[in-house]
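Step 1: inspect the first sequence and its tokens.
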Amino acid sequence: MKKLFILTLLSISIFSCKKEIIEDNETYQLLNPIRSDANAGTWRPVLLTTANEFACATPIATTSPDYILQLSEIKSFQNDITSEKRKLVNYWGAGAVLRWNEIMRELVAKHNIPPYQNADGTYPIPQAGNPLAFPTFPFSNPPYAARAYAYLSAAQYDACIAAYFYKNQYNRTAPFNIDGNIQTLLPKSTLPSYPSEDAVVMGVSVELLKLLFPGDQDYINQKAEEHKRARLIAGANVRSDLDAGEALGKLVATKFVIRARGDRAGAAVGTPAIWAALETNTAATGQIPWISLESPKRNPMLPLFGKVKTFLFDSLTMVTNIRPSAPPSTSSPQFATELAEILNFSKNITREQLRIAHFWSDGVNTYTPPGHWNYIAAKDFVQQNFSEARWARNMALLNMSLMDAGVACWDTKYFYFNPRPSQMNDEIKSVTGVPNFPAYTSGHSTFSAAAATVLGYIIPANAASYNAMAKQASESRLHAAIHYRSDCEKGFETGIKVGAFAVTRGQTDGAE
């Protein structure tokens, strides 16, 4: 598995101000869908009110002088097909959703570094309004990452719905069908080329990534230019196909940007008064509250993330149907039994358990647990030969479930504020480090069960395998001595519930 999934703290300077993007650029087969999904313009969107909510201008005629010039531009690119040009075409030819998801994962890994403490023992908080100041914005921890993946994927899906609607309306054929002198360096699509589905994905992705990673705009713009150039070199689109798709994607992005700015994530970090109240209020119930085990003590990670607006259900549903019952009391025999089990794992971990704990750790400088499941999905989706629209729809279902699983998990964590095993017994030593937030429930278990539920729906033949991976990811937190058994079991149950909401949406979105 990828190096980004392995926690190698010895090789990472988490205090460095300069952070480079680690690009994997995996080689994938060229996108060649089994079915075109030409009806995707009729599928149910996430935020768009209708597929044609935003206008897309009528294309110029393929016999016009301007269009002929655009054909000439393609031929000028194709006069000398160098190895570098072909490499660019093949990279982007694997699929727009695939590659922009990969870019998102790279950005998450780059920024998944907790800020270092100030001289006075306090911790600075990254500021979206000044993203290049120390510590740089964002700190893409698991909740932030889950939300980022969800916004990108849901926006890509709605953008594809809009693009496919206008493809059917205008029905302008691809340039290689107009001019026999144009080479086709990619599998021939039967879809109309205007507006370009690649460009609509690119346009919406650029806007969302700039919102989520504002300090990386030069890199994001560079990738967008490469994407457009690849489509021209490949003979897949003329310039106006790309311009129309990009413009439409940017319009769709506005709806998601507005939602993101008002979804309460900006206040999730809380305040010193809120942090203190969580500890005081939990102690008042007779339970031992969670405390930070870092030195100096770090403020809890995003204690109000459980208040963030979800995609698949409302806050009342979360509180009444999804939030699990209380964990075992910290003074109960069951708690003592579970704590003893973790002490045993800590002292007697096997080599295989250690391998599993590290494989699923997804800590500093990685894609995070939600990104790990995006990677798993991407590898499997490639083998299914989905259309661009179906890629977008499936990634949206996966990532909306992962974000909402994160919100539900963080709601539970800070509602109960339960201590970590190593807080209760200092003989317990974790092999992967102790996360800086309460134990109940396990984020890995919640994320993984949600992902396995959705992926098993999308690829039923792999359902048992996904469930086994999710179980292993959940149990890895026991091996790592980070969670109690009830954390993992209840988190897993919660993840299944959240995933079921995404499955229900998929069953009624018109894509089946």
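Step 2: inspect the second sequence and its tokens, then contrast the two.
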Amino acid sequence: MRRREAWTRGELLQHQSDGLRSLIAFAKSRSPLYAERMRRISSGSVHLQDLPIIEKKEVMSEFERIVTDPRINLADVNRHMEGVEDDECYMGEYRVLTTAGSTGRKGVFVYDRNAWTCLMAGVERGAGLVGIAIGRERTASIGSGSQLHLSYRRAVSEPEGSGLRLILKVTDPLQRLTDELNSFQPGILHAYPSMAGLLAEEQINGRLDIHPGIIVTGAEILAEETARKIREVWGGVLFNSYSCTEGILGVECGFHQGIHIFEDLCIVEVVDERHNPVPDGAPGHHLLMTNLYQQTMPLIRYLISDMVTVSADACPCGRPFRTIKEIHGRVEETIYLGGVNTGKVPVWPAHLSSMIMARQGVLEFQVELIQGRLEIDIVADPGISRKDTASVLTRNIKEGIESLGAVCPPLRIRFLDRIVREAGKMGKKQTVVLRAPDSGPLAGAEH
């Protein structure tokens, strides 16, 4: 993988083309679903846009027809997940992962040994990009407590030097996390962005005293205000990352010009609402991902509802991989409001983050659209004025929404001591919670 980083862009694209042909030939020969759906597709001459798109709900409903090992069935996999302990593999040879279900439905994905080795090699390559020598430095990882989630599985699968690894659950009380970190004194910290921001505030208030030289965030939107606080508090080097259970890996390099997508492992298409490609530099509506290293459970043009903008410029580091310039959030967490003139205007989670986290003293937030009103839960520093903060936030949000060309709905700001992180959703904090279709005059999520 490291040798591939010296490839030209043309060499990378040829590698993708060869990998796609090989994947299609294998899937057609071993997967009943792909054999049916691609019977008219020639493995010798493949155009990606001609291939059918598959979504999570279809993957789960057609699970046994997608997998290429006929011994695998979803009922058995579910039983395995219910009873899994420590490092057990399904049937002794398959690693099972599940998504957090933050999009409304959990996905289950089965990795064979070769694919899992490839994934972990990609993780180690990413560590190298940020200057981490895995297994040689004191590393604390705060993520899901579930052995079936990528954030936990990645951490426990990395090589470990004696006493150099601390794995914590993001759902644990903050006091316990600070106590553990104070005792361990990590040189490297992995955490969800929202948790890293909370820990930075604990450091400011004197309850936490650690000095990591490298901080790596991922799995949530990293607001610029949160990133700035992390850098100011610890003075370490902050790297943002992007990954998904289905197989995408990516991380910033030392130039910090965006998150490199490891495109030798997968093909990532940034597309609009109709699945048409958008040019680099323009925001996409969702992603289509083709995993080139996973054969047991082929995922070809698999829809991922993340909205990103890929940079139109190459990174100065010279690697052939494109970079993610901005992560805007998920389609399911996008609020559509009435436009000032006409139609609907999307308000992305990233928009809300910039409006709310710009207020000094705001630690966390969550937004919910209820009957045409935006309910905004805020966790704030106890030392700030709630009245003043509510006033500033109301103004910031109103001005921010109107600057997008939308009509700002009624706002209600509520202060909480903490925002509960659901263990069932792997402890990831949703920026926007959208439940049943909204019954008020404003539209909810648009799919």
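Step 3: confirm your contrast with the notes below.
The longest strand covers residues 362-370. Residues 436-447 have pLDDT under 50 and may be disordered.
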